[in-house]
Structures are given as C-alpha cells and as structure tokens.
Amino acid sequence: MEIMNVQLAPNNARLTCYLQDKSDAMPNVDIRPAALVLPGGGYQYCSDREAEPVALAYMAEGFNAFVLRYTTGMDCPLDKSLQDARAALAYLRQNAADLRIDPHMIAAVGFSAGGHLAAALGTQSEEKPDALVLGYAVTLGATWAPMGRPSEPNLGDLVTDTTPPAFIFATQGDTLVPVKNSLVFADALADHDIPFALHIFPVGEHGLSLARPCTSKGDLSKVNSDVARWLPMSISFLQDIWGALGVVSPRPELRAQMGGGKAGLDVPFKRLLKNPGAAEVLQRRLPEVVGILRQNPLLKGASLRQLAGFMPDAYPEDLLRSIDEELSKV
Amino acid sequence: MEIMNVQLAPNNARLTCYLQDKSDAMPNVDIRPAALVLPGGGYQYCSDREAEPVALAYMAEGFNAFVLRYTTGMDCPLDKSLQDARAALAYLRQNAADLRIDPHMIAAVGFSAGGHLAAALGTQSEEKPDALVLGYAVTLGATWAPMGRPSEPNLGDLVTDTTPPAFIFATQGDTLVPVKNSLVFADALADHDIPFALHIFPVGEHGLSLARPCTSKGDLSKVNSDVARWLPMSISFLQDIWGALGVVSPRPELRAQMGGGKAGLDVPFKRLLKNPGAAEVLQRRLPEVVGILRQNPLLKGASLRQLAGFMPDAYPEDLLRSIDEELSKV
Amino acid sequence: MEIMNVQLAPNNARLTCYLQDKSDAMPNVDIRPAALVLPGGGYQYCSDREAEPVALAYMAEGFNAFVLRYTTGMDCPLDKSLQDARAALAYLRQNAADLRIDPHMIAAVGFSAGGHLAAALGTQSEEKPDALVLGYAVTLGATWAPMGRPSEPNLGDLVTDTTPPAFIFATQGDTLVPVKNSLVFADALADHDIPFALHIFPVGEHGLSLARPCTSKGDLSKVNSDVARWLPMSISFLQDIWGALGVVSPRPELRAQMGGGKAGLDVPFKRLLKNPGAAEVLQRRLPEVVGILRQNPLLKGASLRQLAGFMPDAYPEDLLRSIDEELSKV
Amino acid sequence: MEIMNVQLAPNNARLTCYLQDKSDAMPNVDIRPAALVLPGGGYQYCSDREAEPVALAYMAEGFNAFVLRYTTGMDCPLDKSLQDARAALAYLRQNAADLRIDPHMIAAVGFSAGGHLAAALGTQSEEKPDALVLGYAVTLGATWAPMGRPSEPNLGDLVTDTTPPAFIFATQGDTLVPVKNSLVFADALADHDIPFALHIFPVGEHGLSLARPCTSKGDLSKVNSDVARWLPMSISFLQDIWGALGVVSPRPELRAQMGGGKAGLDVPFKRLLKNPGAAEVLQRRLPEVVGILRQNPLLKGASLRQLAGFMPDAYPEDLLRSIDEELSKV
Description:
The structure is a homotetramer. Chain A is α/β, with parallel strands linked by helices. The first copy, chain A, is 36% helix and 17% strand. Chain A has twelve helices and eight strands. An eight-stranded mixed sheet of chain A has the order 1-2-4-3-5-6-7-8, sandwiched between helices. In chain A, helix 2 packs across helix 4 (113-123) and helix 9 packs across helix 10. At the A-B interface, helix 5, strand 8, helix 6, helix 7 and helix 11 of A face helix 5, strand 8, helix 6, helix 7 and helix 11 of B.
C-alpha cells in the first residue's frame, strides 16, 4: 500500500490517499471504487475516530480510500470547508488513473459535520460525487443555529434530479443531531426518485462511527452490533448501484431508476413527466391522468400499466398500445 | 402446539391462535410475548403470504402468534376492519393467561393495508398494542384516494405521546405504497420521542413479506437477503424495548425514553417540557432557553447539560446545580 | 396450520406433524422440504427444548416439520429407538403427498442422543433420510460406555457412499459429548466424498439447541449469538444441495459431487475409482498414478487435469485427450 | 498510517508493517492486537491475494497488521521459510512498543502453505504466536509428497499443551488441500484441550482468501458469502480469547480452559490430570475413576461433579466434599 499526503489549494487542506498495491494476481482491482472520507467534528476539528478506521473498513472491501482533513474552526465559513471537499473531488477525478480509481465510482462518506459536507457536495456543488454515505449527518439549517451559524440552508431543499444516490444512517438516541436531519433529507431524495437506503436504529448516542471496538475509544456505549451493520449494508448499497469489481453486477432496477431509460407503459409517471416529449404525450392523450397526478403526487411512482390494472375499463388494451407506441418514439 | 380459531364479535372476523406447548423444561417461556399478525391485501382480502409464514417467523423466536383475518371488501369501511383489530387486541389482553402471553408485550405486525391497520390501532384506537411492526405500511390518506377512499386521515398526524414504539421497514422500489408513507410516520414518532427503528431498502417491489423463498410464491424478485434482515432486526427492536424471555434485559436507554424517569440536567428538554413541574422550573429559571427551544424545536432533543457544554460561561456549574436540585423535586 | 399426532407401530412412538396451510397465493410451497426432528435426552427422555422450537425454526424457512418422540429408557435398547426413527421416515415417504412434502427432501435433524439417532438412520438403516443435521451428536461408541451401553459401534465406521449429506455443529465447551464425536464422523464423510458442513464453536456447553432465548430455559449460558448461526447456516446447506422452493437452484458443484456425473479429466480420482469402467481405464493407461493414489489416498481428491498441471512433461496433451476419450465412453 | 518494510535476517525476508495512526481521541487503541499474515502459494511464491487484502480486513477491526513474504522456491527447504516466520515473530515481540502492539496478542494468519507455516510456528517453533488462524492450511505431511517434499511430518502430531488456540476454516470443494488437513489438526487440538473453532464449508475451491469480490481476481467462483463469514467469525474467536480493545472482555470459559485455574469438582478430569498434585489426589482417592479414564479417554472432558450426577450412589456428597477440600489445596 502507498500512503500519500497531498496539500490541496487554496486552503492547504490535507488529503491522505490510501492506495492499495497493484498486483498481476488481481487484475480485477487494477481500478477500484473510491471512498472519500469526511470526518465529523462540528466544523471545529476533524475527528480521528471517523477518519482512518473508516478508510480501512472500505479498503477491506476493495476500495481505495482518501481522508480529507478539511478546514475547520469557529470562524471558518462552511463555504471554505466545501471548497476543500470540492478540491478533493476534483483531485480524485483528475488523477483517477494514477490513483487507480474509477472516476465515476467515488463515494463521499461523511459523519456528522462531515456528513453535512458530503451532502453539501451532493447538492450545493456543481461537480458531485457518484454516491453519498451519510452517518448521523446534519442537513437541517436549524441544527447549526445554536453553534452560531444562523443562516445555513436545509440541504434537502437543494436536492435535485442530479443529486447522487445516498446511503443514510442515524440513531434515535442521538440528541445532538436529531434523526429528523436524516428523515427530511431522505424524503427529498424520495421526491426526486434518487436511490437511497435509510437505516435509523433506536439505540445509540451521537458519533458511533463504525460502532466497533476499534472506534469506541474504550466506551462500551459506542459499541453496538446492530448499528455496526451499517458498514456492510453500505457496501451492499454501493454494489447495488455500481456492481463490484467485475464479479457482481449492478441491480438493473436501480440502473433503470437512475438512468432514465426508454419511455413506456412500465415507466413510473414521475420519470415520464421529467421527459418533455413523454410529458407532452401524457398531457395530450391522458389529460385527466395528468390532472390526478397533479392533485395526488404520491401516485407519480406508479406506471400507466399499473393504473390500467386498477381500472381496465377506463384504459383498454388498444388505447395502451397506441400510447406505448407514441412514448417509444420520444 | 395448539391451533385455535376464534370468531370475534361483531363482524365474525377469524383470529387464528398459534399457542406453543408449555413445558416444564422451559419455565422461562410459560408466558411469551405475542405477535398479532395483520396481513395486507388493500382491504380487499387478507394475503396468505403475510399471514402464517410471518406468524411462524415470530414463533421461532419465542412468541405466541395470532393471525387476524379482518373484514375486507370494496364497500367495507376501514372502521369495520379497525373494529376487528380492536376486538382481537381486547381478546388477547382479556385471555392473556389462557393464551400464555404477557398482556403488556403485544406487537401488532402488519403489512401494506395490514400495516395501515396496525398503525391505526396504535393511533386511532383507545386501547393500543405495546409495539408496532409496520411493513410497507400505508399511513398517508392520499394513498387511498385512487382506490375510492378519498378522506382517510394521515395517521402520522394522529401520533401522540401514547403511540407505541414502532419498527418500520419499506423498499424504495415499491411503486404501490411510496416510501413517503413510512418516512412521514417515522417523522411523527421522532417528534414525539417514541422509540422507533426505520429501515428503507433501495431495491424491492411491493409486498416482499419475509423476502425469503417461502414467501416468494416462486418469484425471484420477492427473495432479497438484504431486505430479509428486517425480521431479525425487528426481533432485536422488540428485545431492546421488552428484553427477552428472562435472559435479555431491555435497553435502559429506551426504558428511560419511554418511561419518563426523573427530571434532571441530563434529561432532554422535550421530556422536561412535557412534565408540568419541570416545565415551570425551566420557564422560571431559564426563560431565554425556553424561548430558543420555541424558535428551534430541533434543539429539544438536547439536555441542559449538553447546552451548558457548548456555553460554559452562560451556564456556570453552581447555576446548574441549583436548577438540578429544583428539578429533582418535581 | 394443521397439527396431527400419529402413533407409529410397533412401539407406539408419537410423531407430531406440523403441516403448514396450503394456499393458492403460494403455489411454490404446495410441496415443501421436511424436517424430521429428533430431540436429545440421552435416550432417557425426549427434550422439549430440542423439539417444537426447532420444528418452528425450520417451518419459518418453509419446511413442514415432524417431531418424533421415540422410545427411550434405561433398559430400552437403542435398536428400538432406531426402529421408531425408521418408522417415522417410512411414514413420511409413504404419506408424502398427504403431508405435502417432497419424499426426496427429508432432513433428519437430531441433537445429542437424537443426533446419534439421526446419524444411525443415515448409516445403520437401509432406508435413509436425504440429509442429516447433527447437533452435538454422539457418534463414538465409547461415549455411551459410562451410561451402561458398552458395545455401541462408532457410526463413522459405518459411513458409506450412500450416507446422506450432513450438516454438523458442536461446541468445544461441551464436556458431556466431546467434539471428537463430530470430528470423527465428519472425517468419515470426507473420506467418502459425502458433502458436509462442520462448525465447531469454541464456547458453549452441552445442549444449546437453537442457542436463542426461547430455548435457553432462562439460562444466559444457553444463549450465544455465534452458535445461534448454526440454524441459518444449516438452511444454507440444505439449499446448496436441494435448492429452495423453486427460486433458488442447488449448487451444481454439490450436485456433481453427489450425483456421479460423467467420467472425464476433471473428475476427482476418487469418483473415477468408484466407477468400475473408469477405474479399469486408469489402471490400464496410468498404472503408476493408481499406485501413487494407493500410497497417498489424500491425492484422490485431485483430478487428472490437476495432476497434469503439476507435471506437464509426464502427461502431455495428446495422452490426456486419448484418455479422456476412453473415459467418456465408460 | 505508516507503512514500513523491514528486511529480516538471515534470509532477507520482507516484512511489511501496517501501523495505524495513534490518536489522542482513541486511547484504547494505543496498543493493538497484531495479525502476522502469511500468504499461501505452495512455498513457490507468496500470493498477493492472501496478503494485503487480509491485512486490511484485520486492520478494519482494530489490528496492526504485518505481511511476511517468506523465502520460497522449489529447492527451498521448509525450515528456511519457518526461520523467516520465527524471525518475524521475534521482531514483533522485540519491537512491540514501537509497533504499538501487545506482544501477547499476536495471531499468525496463514493460508494454504502459509497456513502450514502458521501451524508450524505454533508447533515446531520454540517461540509461538498467541493464536493461529488457519485457512485451508496444509498440516498433513502426505499432502506435500507429490510436490517433491516426501518427509514432512503431520503437524497435528506435534501439537502439545503449549500450542496456541486456533481458528480453522476450509472448504470441502478444495481438491488441492483436502479438508482432512483441517480435521486432523483440529482433532489434535481437541485432544490437548486447546481452544479452537473449526468451520468447514461444503462449497468452494482452493484459495478463496476472504471470499469477497476484492480477492476474487474477477472469478465468481471465488466469491462466496457463506465462506466469507470466516473473517468476522475469526474476529469473534480472537475476542473470545483476548477480549477487544478495552471494551469487550475475554470469555471466562476460555480463560479457564487455557489458564489452568484452581483444581476442584467442576474442573474437567483432563485438566486435573495435568496438575501433578491433583492427579495424585485422584489416583489416591478414586483409583477406579482414573482406571476408567485411562480406558476411555473421551470421558476426560467431564468433571467429577458430572460423573457423580450420573452415579449419585457411588459418589455421595460427603465423599465429594472431602475430595474437593483436598483438591483446593494442591
């Protein structure tokens, strides 16, 4: 393994790069997915407990890992930290070949304030990571208020169709960063049909990191075998969207959900409505349906085929067929 | 084992009781926790895939199980189904000794429409179960609208401090019952400090039941080893709140969260504010804090001790001590 | 579910049949695999802790289950208990259609003395189950000696090519039935190329059953989450050999290992040598190899192709090809 | 993290040291357990697939890791490789403080030939590691014969009371190193009452390493989620004997089994017999029992209390009490 410390302009943030050895015996890992680890610490410092041990956990599953010690401090505006995260992401993409990583498989893995930073990178930044892993992350502006940052936005409000898929976990026993931070962000992802996983565990205080002995600092309340399942579940999630190292394929369902794909009877209304051509077909051929969807946005997850299943008389087969034909051309 | 079918007044709903054998070799299971299983089926029917196999999964962990085939049908008002669920719960409580169950350890385990019924039992009913397990449950009124039930309430709006703890799971691939149904209900529980677990998996269609081969009806898309972890995780959750059969203790954190406990510096503001005496102390001694909490309800999860940690100058030790003394007397 | 008690001739042993309900919603479980549960108890009694709870654990994975309370007692010869087990197996096979089970997917699941009975059924009986699950089973004759049964055989000595595949687990902390009982039986299975799994856990006394709270009789030393993994691992094992309920296929490797298959360069020597035709080809064409195998039986697991890989000069391609041709005809 | 390459005398074998960063935030990991990783490769080379990825898997659980590239080659006597392993172990012990490891928590983790080397270090070496992790390890001399090493001993024959505890796994589908290698070694450990875990999985070829995508070299047959459980199970095993990083205690049962402890009625005969004083008491007071144990060594795992339970008339309470008193003084 090679350990490399890089100073990133303009703030001299330190990016520690953990690069696994290349080996002829393992050609499938010549290029690896990447975990960009963003430790927490209330933007006051970067916690070691959420740095190297997390990098190692991802490396043990085949990732190359990168720990960013971003700029922090009472007087440091969050923009400056975000600048560092952006610089790290750009560095990874620009040097992907040298770092032996796939520039389209970069997960930003952040905890607490670092989770805020990861989520900001996924919403407030032009260039975005390819996935987010958010541990007890702050996303609600109000959470910052008592720490003297009164006007931070709710990151969930900034979610768009280009926000990357996200794995989210938190514990209800966390009194510092209430789980609402995770719930509201997940809700925004759901609204935009962005693939996500959400795991809220009932027991556990703030800052569990891996919830293993090695990140517990000797405190039994920071070891929790239920919560510790978040790490392998996050690996599963990233495999679902990216596949794994040439032996596991991505889940076709998520590929379809993320990738657009062709318009048709089986495509959820919400995806059709984002496609101007398909939206025009729906509006012209089924204006009453578009009206219902406007009144009841919950239904947008269903497809025309599903709707017709409920009301076969209203939507006979030949009608469906002719609409399908039109959709296939958009 | 004894299988017993009971007809419940007034609608003649059928309750199938699965009672494990009593044995002198296992005195710790003379009295067992109970799972009241409420299958789904859109209030049109009760799905076998979410009935007996689920009962067996809980029995294998030591529960006695009860499957309710509640009244359904296009023209059946949901109140009638709820009447059945209430009758089943009352039957279990009234006959707890004969059924060899603990009348204070009854979990209502429902799926889809049955999950709606379980959640309704936990919110709209005077007599409530002791825990809820909600699988891809409907909780938003709008979900019912296209099925001809336009005016159902959002069950999350009915959550109060007396709603029981809930284990919730769903899959984002579920286009029939969008995950928002689970997110919004969990959010309401969070607001009321009710212990809950929430697991949303990215992949999986509606109606996975146990997500094991035995509930798949031979359809591979209904087998998912990630989603299948909900069952053991739900057992963990119920153990966290109840303990298990004399050998596992309940988690003291959840006991405290549920049970009130004594007022003091370490108790979250939200619990203090629900206690009139403690609320009076706070209002009198720290009116500015109460003002902040009113403006920023997110902070109510924190305790006075945590707040003082951030601002030691504003809240010196002797002030804290004297407030603690007052709180300890309420 | 239907519970049925059957008295089996000639000893009136009681077989409790647990038959899951049939449902049009789950056509893939019209026919289920079967678990014939044989509780332990030193042939003095049948332990409830290893009876119904185990049946339920298998039912929760889709099995129909059958608990046999075989004849026991200080003066009862083991043959009589074996007679009961044989009768139960025959009953299951003869009534497979009525019991809705596959007569070729019957696992005998035994613990301690019941594990001895299961292993005896797999070795000393003409009619054999299709798989064995052996929990801290007695297989060594010497284990019985101090209990007044001085002349029981070592069941490992009776293993033949027709012994069914076996899942075996035990704990080293078991001072009553030393793990050697499991090791020696597994070794005999290995010698005969019978598929098996073996899991010996370091910690745990005799008689853990499922190692869950529900089988602990309130004794914490009988709950062990590591050991409790035996049950799902046994389900995996049975799926590897049988597949699962129309959605999971059997492992082709095990099918090949069990089923013979065609002779050829890739087939382990030990399987070739059991096939008289193939053995003749080997003896004639490669007498020196047969000699080596006789001296070093460990090598019998390798194939001719593997051997040639080590020594390409001694076994050139055209030689291999011509031998392969001969083998393909036997 | 610091990566350090050390050349070890006398053969210039390369030891790569992976030392996790020290941090004030995690005082409980100032000193860590150590994994000395010994890759396989038939003593012809050291396989990268069993080197760094394995080191990372242990580091992710809190270990510092050390990969030894020992001397190999057709003409290299195995003694020379063992010399390297001994040198590595001595280096770790002598530099424990600098390497931030506990010199009494060093596990030798070897695979295939590297597993042979680990087992040799635990049996043929004066200075021994504190635990062994053996993956599809060669232990039977006959396995080496066809590779031109005809006179290697069976390592199981060299097991003594000072052999360290061992975690052992293998797959029955391994035709290169038959599972008998693991079975026979485990049997020797059982005979000497050395704590061990043994996991033999039915499916899987030779050389699975972690059985994860990252060690698969892109070959699906080298990914197996059942077999992949060996790594966390090995962590559990090492925690059972050593505890974990100040938050998990060692299992008292294993401590007792390893450490001797006081003589008494509840101590297995085999431990009593190793203690000269206790052996004398037994021989004098219960010569007939010592005779039985000589004839039936299997019984040595039982205690006098257990024996008396079977035969209360032969061993009345006051006899037991007086023997206990004598034993307590030895």
